[in-house]
Amino acid sequence: MEDWKIKIAALWLFNAVGFTAVVLLGLVMPGGIEQIIAGEIEGMVINDALLLSIAVFWLVPLTMAFLSLTLKDSANRWANIILGIVWVAFGIIDLGDTLSRGWLTIALVAGSKTVAAVLIIWYAWKSKQKA
Asked: What are phi and psi of 38, to 5 degrees?
């Protein structure tokens, strides 16, 4: 197995674990549990659409970790570059939101996930140079 594929898979797993950390930190922040009991998360009503989006944010990185190890090189590179760019965009939005709210601990995790997504793009792009 090529080294770059393992690195990218590990970075996708880092993103999934980081998302889990953000959710858990949100729960233990003051008012977090109370919001959920009231049926809301950060002003959004907890419904099927919200739960589906949360599931997608967990499943995409996990799926990409697997695909990074199994896809052929060209498809692997492009899938990781494209989804990596999407994840960087979401990460920047998340980082900006958490910083604007003063949630420095969650911002640290959000920033780390964004750096991991940038590294995914970097390793996928760099792998083409080696081929």
From this structure: -75, -5
Contact (CB, 8 A) for 92 and 66: no
CA distance 19 to 38: 23
pTM of the model: 0.91
Q: Which residues pair with 40 in a beta bridge?
A: 45
- Domain ranges across the chain: 3-130
> Band of the pLDDT at 130, cuts 50, 70, 90?
low
What would the pLDDT profile of 105-116 be if each residue is shown by its tens digit?
A: 999 999 999 999
How far apart, in Å, are the Cα atoms of 35 and each of 41, 42, 98? 6, 8, 17
